[in-house]
């Protein structure tokens, strides 16, 4: 939790003729109500102080200002508003200088834009990331940024939400100077004194001429409008950002500010803002697993990876990118060469794209050591196995690790389904075992499921979370079960999709409905991308234990039996011609589906896209609730983070659990009960949902409790 701002959240001090105002509101100097009123009071004090001629704005600690206080969104507003404070700063009769170090983001940058001059340390990061929270810069940013740096550059900053460095900011004209040291006070004072010596006036951004070339501005706005309608059509705030910049071009400054306020309030009220802010806090909460509070992580200085297949190579790249030395183990020279080549390929692609030099690649690969002997792991602090998904094979690998690894080495498995308790129990040091479930491509995908076996020691789990931080991954704590959080839930909503396909919806309609909801891909496209053989192997593994009364759709099996495993074989549910990645609907697949419907004696019926999504989401939410109820996920938010970062769940909807609260748990339960009339075995309402609905409670109410 952000600590309540203390009485001196904004400090005032006088240095010669300069009035220094320091925002001191840890952890990121967010502009909460108290900071805003004290900031305003400080500017007033500076303006009326008889012996000062200029004002210097600073942030205490590691940053200038991280933005508005996100925790206030959705609560009743407390005056003064940030736009008022910014206007007050800009109106100051004495020159106001912002000296930026660390980050100046969102409202933080807007405060700096309201100042009259800006200096930033060379490692400062500036940005207007409001779009990532479903908002627009609402404290004058949409009006001041285009006036200062032009419509094109301002739109790029606001629509991408990206952070830029001091050099780029200087080139754009967003700041005036780059400081030579990171001592913001000393640099800011020197710069301000220089301005005073030069009798520099209060110079207001509202008067800047960045929009003077009206034709260029109009062109930039229209280009942004076209781009937004193409690439972010699901999102609400990007078009509002474009509208606000249009207002900056067409209206006097004060009218533009009023317009910006209206648009900002619309964004603030949108469910997308609620979803995106939920996602922001959820991924920060997910990092705080109980073990990370109890125990210190073990030191990780070198790592071993067993297996040089797609997964092993991807994991090796992720580790190399984090600066770690990596030993890759394969069973023979040919496999090792293949694994090393897969690693190299990733860097070659970066070189081809101009994003890496040959020397950088050579430096990274110097940290990769291949071997066909487990003995090469004797000094490793952590070993991650990514071998074939088979219990006997995994146990054999762990027996070797038990033999060669030093005491205290963390032994991790990248299994996606297997019982990690059984793997741990098979060796002499079960307390050192943990699941690190990476997602493919492992060097790209953000999610890392940290799977916690019963006997694992707390410092091993803390080490896993620490590793995730080093790898810039988003970790989620999961318990042991078939599929952990993500794949367990996936199996159920994929089954719901299969049922709909057999009942009459085409895979192409289902995929389209799922994409229209906001996923980048539908379930059948995902299967084609991942390789149909993977799911097929899992289905075969489960066949013996599957409840024979449970509905089982065989369409995917029929497709796999033909060797159609998706993109890599040129056909799966879709047809991929000329090695392309965009599949076309395949009439032969439709014929297979027809034949399967006949075999199962099903008369196909039509589904609307809305019906498809109600079933798809109800299946996902119900199984996710089971996962929470059984303690496999600690809280609903852990499910949300898993799905947003590992399964393409649209971030603006917050995650499946947030979405369930948004549409109302009672209505989800009503859907499940309706579907249960056709198939009561598949559609069993989760006890957790039934209980919450009876109590009139939300899933969100469980997020605080763990
Ligand atoms: C805005 O400004 C709207 C305006 O245009 C208009 C207004 C009218 N508020 O990420 P970390 C917490 S929208 C409240 O782990 P890092 C965070 O939850 C805002 N709390 O640290 C965490 O708490 P805890 C635009 C915030 O060093 C702790 O601080 N600004 C805020 O890796 C540490 O965070 C943004 O979108 C906040 N604004 O990264 C910036 N920010 O310890 C959002 C952070 O209890 N923030 N917290 O878990 C960030 O991007 C990163 O947090 C930052 C620091 C780069 C600042």
TrEMBL record:
Keyword field contains Mitochondrion: no
Pathway(s) of this molecule: Lipid metabolism; fatty acid beta-oxidation
Domain 3-hydroxyacyl-CoA dehydrogenase NAD binding: 303-478
Catalytic reactions on record: a (3S)-3-hydroxyacyl-CoA + NAD(+) = a 3-oxoacyl-CoA + NADH + H(+)
Location, primary (coarse class): other
Coiled coil: none
Cross-referenced InterPro entries: 3-OHacyl-CoA_DH_NAD-bd, 3HC_DH_C, 6-PGluconate_DH-like_C_sf, ClpP/crotonase-like_dom_sf, Enoyl-CoA_hyd/isom_CS, Enoyl-CoA_hydra/iso, NAD(P)-bd_dom_sf
Family: Belongs to the enoyl-CoA hydratase/isomerase family.
Quaternary data: Monomer.
Name of this chain's protein: 3-hydroxyacyl-CoA dehydrogenase
Organism per entry: Caballeronia ptereochthonis
Lineage: Bacteria, Pseudomonadati, Pseudomonadota, Betaproteobacteria, Burkholderiales
């Amino acid at each position: 939790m952000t600590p309540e701002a203390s009485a001196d959240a904004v400090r005032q001090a006088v240095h010669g003729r300069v009035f220094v105002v320091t925002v001191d509101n840890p952890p990121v100097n967010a502009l909460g109500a108290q900071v805003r009123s004290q900031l305003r009071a400080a500017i007033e004090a500076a303006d009326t102080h008889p012996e000062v001629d200029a004002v210097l704005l600073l942030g205490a600690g590691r940053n200038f200002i991280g933005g508005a206080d996100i925790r206030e969104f959705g609560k009743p507003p407390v005056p003064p508003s940030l736009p008022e404070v910014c206007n007050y700063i800009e109106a100051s009769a004495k020159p106001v200088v912002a000296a930026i170090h660390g980050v100046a983001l969102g409202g933080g940058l807007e405060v700096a834009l309201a100042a009259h001059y800006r200096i930033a340390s060379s490692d400062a990061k500036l940005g207007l990331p409001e779009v990532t929270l479903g908002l627009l810069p609402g404290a004058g940013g949409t009006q001041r940024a285009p006036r200062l740096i032009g419509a094109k550059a301002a739109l790029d900053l606001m629509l991408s939400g990206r952070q830029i460095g001091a050099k780029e900011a200087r080139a754009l004209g967003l700041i005036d100077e780059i400081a030579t040291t990171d001592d913001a006070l000393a640099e800011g004072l020197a710069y301000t004194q220089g301005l005073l010596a030069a009798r520099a006036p209060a110079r207001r951004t509202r008067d800047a001429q960045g929009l003077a070339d009206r034709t260029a501005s109009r062109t930039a706005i229209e280009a942004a409008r076209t781009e937004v309608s193409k690439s972010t059509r699901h999102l609400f705030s990007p078009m509002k950002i474009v509208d606000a910049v249009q207002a900056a071009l067409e209206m006097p400054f004060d009218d533009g500010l009023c317009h910006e306020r209206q648009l900002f309030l619309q964004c603030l009220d949108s469910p997308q803002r609620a979803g995106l802010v939920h996602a922001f806090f959820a991924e920060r909460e997910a990092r705080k697993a109980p073990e990370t509070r109890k125990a210190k992580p073990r030191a990780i200085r070198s790592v071993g990876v067993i297996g040089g297949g797609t997964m092993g190579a991807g994991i090796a790249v992720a580790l190399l990118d984090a600066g770690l030395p990596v030993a890759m183990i394969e069973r023979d020279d040919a496999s090792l060469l293949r694994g090393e080549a897969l690693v190299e390929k990733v860097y070659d692609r970066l070189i081809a794209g101009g994003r890496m030099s040959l020397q950088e690649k050579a430096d990274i690969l110097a940290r990769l050591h291949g071997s066909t002997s487990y003995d090469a792991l004797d000094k490793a602090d952590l070993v991650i196995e990514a071998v074939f998904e088979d219990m006997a094979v995994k146990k054999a690998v762990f027996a070797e690790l038990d033999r060669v690894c030093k005491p205290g080495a963390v032994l991790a498995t990248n299994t996606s389904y297997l019982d990690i308790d059984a793997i741990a129990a098979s060796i002499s040091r079960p307390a050192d075992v943990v699941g690190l479930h990476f997602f493919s491509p492992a060097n790209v995908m953000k999610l890392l499921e940290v799977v916690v076996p019963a006997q694992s020691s707390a410092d091993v789990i803390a080490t896993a979370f620490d590793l995730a931080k080093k790898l810039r991954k988003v970790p989620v704590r999961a318990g042991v079960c078939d599929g952990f959080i993500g794949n367990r839930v996936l199996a159920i909503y994929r089954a719901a999709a299969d049922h709909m396909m057999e009942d009459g919806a085409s895979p192409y309609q289902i995929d389209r409905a799922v994409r229209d909801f906001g996923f980048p891909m539908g379930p059948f496209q995902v299967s084609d991308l991942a390789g149909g053989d993977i799911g097929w192997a899992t289905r075969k593994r489960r066949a013996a234990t599957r409840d024979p009364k449970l509905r089982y759709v065989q369409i995917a099996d029929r497709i796999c039996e033909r060797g159609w495993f998706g993109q890599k074989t040129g056909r799966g549910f879709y047809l991929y011609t000329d090695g392309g990645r965009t599949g076309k609907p395949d009439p032969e697949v439709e014929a297979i589906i027809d034949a399967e419907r006949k075999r199962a004696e099903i008369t196909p019926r039509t589904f609307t896209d809305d019906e498809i999504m109600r079933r798809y989401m109800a299946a996902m939410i119900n199984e996710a609730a089971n996962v929470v109820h059984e303690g496999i996920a600690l809280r609903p938010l852990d499910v949300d983070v898993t799905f947003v970062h590992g399964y393409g769940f649209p971030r603006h909807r917050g995650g499946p659990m947030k979405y369930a609260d948004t549409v109302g748990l009672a209505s989800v339960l009503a859907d499940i009960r309706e579907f249960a009339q056709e198939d009561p075995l598949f559609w069993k309402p989760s006890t957790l949902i039934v209980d919450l609905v009876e109590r009139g409670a939300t899933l969100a109410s469980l997020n605080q409790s763990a």
